[in-house]
Hints:
Elements: H1 2-38, E1 46-51, E2 57-63, E3 68-75, E4 84-86, E5 90-91, E6 94-95, E7 99-101, E8 104-105, E9 124-130, E10 135-141, E11 155-159, E12 161-162, H2 171-177, E13 187-195, E14 200-209, H3 211-221, E15 227-232, E16 241-243, E17 246-248, E18 255-261
Antiparallel strand pairs: 1-2, 2-14, 3-18, 4-16, 4-18, 5-6, 7-8, 7-11, 9-10, 9-11, 12-15, 13-14, 13-15, 16-17
Amino acid sequence: MYMYRLVKLKAAYLLIYILIMITSFIWTIILGTHGKVRAPNLPISEYSISQASNGVTIHTIRTPPQNIGLKAITSNVTDMKENGINGGFFWQSYLLSIAVINDHPVKGQPGDYGSGWFNIDRKRGTLVWDEKARTFTIQVVENANELKVMDRAHYWAQGGVSMGLANPDGWAAQAISEEMPVIDEKRMRSGIVYDRNNNVYLVVAPTPCTGDQFRTAVQEQVGDGQLVDGLFLDGDGSSQLKVADYLLPGDHREVYQMITLLN
């Protein structure tokens, strides 16, 4: 009788063990399947701070091109609700650099002076995201009519001065021909560059540096060796950035155009 009870007890324990294993297996499948649905998405943008070997500190926002907005403002970037950096050059309240979305300048109408339709007075480097072609290009143009895109209702274009990342011997001469201001003086700097995977990077250096020092720092610290090309943007006191609580106000001046993050 004792042996019979022992066998029954062992059988009961075995049955319980088997049921636990089956239940555990089922829950593993359920959680594994639904866990993928509930997993949070990766952030659409990434913010980083790094220091190049030449001592220049750079703040960088990496984001996809569809997350870029161009906006006319009359404010310091750090006072805006949007995250982003300063944009192109300006004089008083007139925009001197192209800032166009889908053939519409950010301030005024196509053809209006200071609206963002022109790189005023001469052809300058302009970063163009062609949504239909899924490609970035740097186009040296004087006005938005000259831009080459597949569909004029699906692109954005930001003007500045060519950085010439693929032109190590001639970039400085090209930048000077585009009237790059104070290229050899140590000033705060801003830029926008892109890589082979169609990531775009908004870069601000609060460290006073020459154009060459900034360009070198960008090549060294941004894009993991995959950068293709980019632009110098307005700099010195206009070099401004806002990412959540990270603020670079430049010299606290107002600027008149901003490159924003939509999300």
